[in-house]
Amino acid sequence: MKIKEIIPILEELTPLAYAEDFDNVGLLVGNNEQKITGILVCHDALETVVEEAVEKKCNLIVCFHPILFSGLKKITGKNYVERAVIKAIKYDVSIYAIHTALDNHPEGVNKIFCNLLGLKNTKILIPKSSYIQKLITFVPRRQAEQVKNALFEAGAGAIGNYDNCSFVSDGMGSFRGNSQSNPIIGVQGKYEEVEEAKVEVTFEKHLQSKVLKKLFVSHPYEEVAYEIYNLENKLQNAGMGMIGELENEMDEMEFLKMVKTKTETGGVRYSSLLGKPIKKVAVLGGSGSFAIANAKAQGADAYLTADLKYHQFYEAEKQLVLVDVGHFESERYTKNYIVEYLSKKMPTFAVILSTVNTNPVNYL
User: Fold this and answer.
1) Nearest Cα residue to 346 out of 26, 41, 33
2) What is the pLDDT of residues 315-350, one digit of tens each?
3) Mind telling me which GO cellular component terms the entry cites (predicted)?
């Protein structure tokens, strides 16, 4: 297989359109035409991981964190980023990063975190905005059903737990074809009126090319009239963080001990205890201080994340318990999820889980 054949499989797992604007995801090092001998999946594509890939005859690294986050003006090997890139290029090892595309995925980083803690009734903490689009098209009434079904096949018409959602209204369409036209209804140069259906469906923007392809194939007209709008509605089944409930409420200290064990962290940092049981829990893998207000607004008893600064613990305001489990620890099982997915999609292809510990933080 070539990289260009594997990328669509990776995009099925995590559409890159899910990624945040500030992020750097996708193919960071390498060439689409490169033939792949094996895939090594890791958390961070450090120099030691590149060495592991070479040793295990894997020339594609799929990593969670992008090794290249901001631009490089020089590549001289003066820091860990440059050294990793130099080694990857030297040994023809390609690097593909997923990061916030998997953070925002409904089955990604935060769902994995929730499953680890045994949370039930989970939902997105901060639904993704500016991601839903709306298609409006006009079809002869008798062909409306075939066009709708084609759009549904492309993934349009999904709203939360429902699919095949649409709105259809009737009206009168008009047109006149010029001498170069080939109308399926009427003749060149003659004004025509046709009973038409106005079909409206919403879709996630990463599906736009698929939706339009289905529209053009299924629509009977030579020239397809359609409109696409960006909606302000938030995408409820994708976004940052999650919130759910423990099956049974727990004493605060019992809960913290459980978190420490489950995340395999060297220690948890937490804000003042409130003397009440923990039932509703919010999580956000990685650096999540920006979502403290969201966790409070949704009534979480505890909010688990990483990289909290000293003064941010005050933001608990005796409304919830803030828990910092460590950046690596909050995302540590992400690479296992990627390996399981790729192994199912490509059962005869070598997909290997990296054994290099890339956590830069140590505990005494």
Assistant:
1) 41
2) 999 999 999 999 999 999 999 999 999 999 999 899
3) cytoplasm
Asked whether residue 21 is marked as a ligand-binding residue, the answer is: no
The reply to whether 103 sits in an annotated binding site is: yes
Q: Which amino acid is at 95?
A: I
Domains of the chain from N-terminus onward? 3-99+333-353 (3.40.1390.30), 109-128+238-325 (3.40.1390.30), 132-233 (3.30.70.120)
Question: Do the annotations mark residue 65 as ligand-binding?
Answer: yes
Amino acid at 20: E
Phi, psi of 347 (to 5 degrees): -65, -20
The secondary structure of 303-352, three-state, reads EEEECCCHHHHHHHCCCCEEEECCHHHHHCCHHHHHHHHHHHHCCCCCEE
Ligand-binding annotation for 82, yes or no, is: no
Q: Count H helices and E strands in the chain, helices first.
A: 11, 15
Query: Taking residues 70-83, what's their average pLDDT?
Result: 92
pLDDT at 184: 85
